[in-house]
Amino acid sequence: EQDVAAIMPFFAGPSNARYTYLLAAPEHVDHAKNILHDAQAMGYISRPLAALTLRVLDVVLCGQQDFEAAEALLGILTAHQVELNKRSRNLPLADQARLELYRAVMACAYRLEYQKAFDHADKALSLFQQRPHTEEHQLRTLIVLAQIYHAHGETTLMEGIIQQGVPLLETCGSDAHIALFVALRARLLSDQGYMHASTTLLDQHAGLFARAANHTSSAALDALLHKALCLATHGHYDACAQLLEHLAPKLTTLAGDHPS
């Protein structure tokens, strides 16, 4: 427990700063993984240990986009959740919600199991809405739902999700996730034939996308990729090519040695 308490501060704070710091100093993530490995070898399970596992999973999945490592961590967390429930030591509500969110992300982005992704995201959103100061996580969950609907061409349902997310933007606090949300909103407008409105929306948030370009998290890169697709759809091929050229080294850095 002392090791867990000592490492947890490195995984605290807004996601923008957290991802930037931990992706630049991966030794902290490696140290946390060693703590988790040793605890698993001893058969040790606790709520603080599960909380640390969730935060490592967040960085591995949403920062590094290492789906294989995320899959293993999800398996560990599922086993911990079952055992803690048996002991009547359920995970705190916020951690239950985070776990459902990460299950939704994996189902949507990795396994392409959209119904499971929807079910997990719907449950996560319901849990987050019961807790204060969860605007960023609510927006992240709505992004998953918007991506599911976009993948299926369900523009009306996607529009409903976008409308739910707009009030969260002022208090979200994550440039990367706000940029991804705005980019998805622009994609929706393009799909609906509102090309001028889509272009205007992107132009209005030029500063936001410029800030997102300084991040290497998967959310920031996804936002810029969606913007590039919008630019191509609008016929702005030179601007699209420039953005993709800027993204290429960042995508290589994010991929690292991970084939996914």
Description:
The protein is mainly alpha-helical. The protein has 15 helices and no strands. Helix 11 (175-191) packs antiparallel against helix 12.
> How confident overall, as mean pLDDT?
90
Helix percentage range: over 70%
The overall strand count is 0
The general outline is globular
What would a concise description of this structure say?
Helix content is 78%, strand content 0%.
Topology:
Layout lengths: L1 H6 L7 H10 L2 H16 L4 H17 L3 H20 L6 H17 L4 H15 L6 H17 L3 H11 L3 H4 L2 H17 L3 H10 L1 H7 L5 H16 L3 H19 L5
Helix pairs in contact: 3-4, 4-5, 4-6, 5-6, 6-7, 6-8, 7-8, 8-9, 8-11, 9-11, 11-12, 11-13, 11-14, 12-14, 14-15
Characteristic terms for this protein:
260 residues; mainly alpha; globular
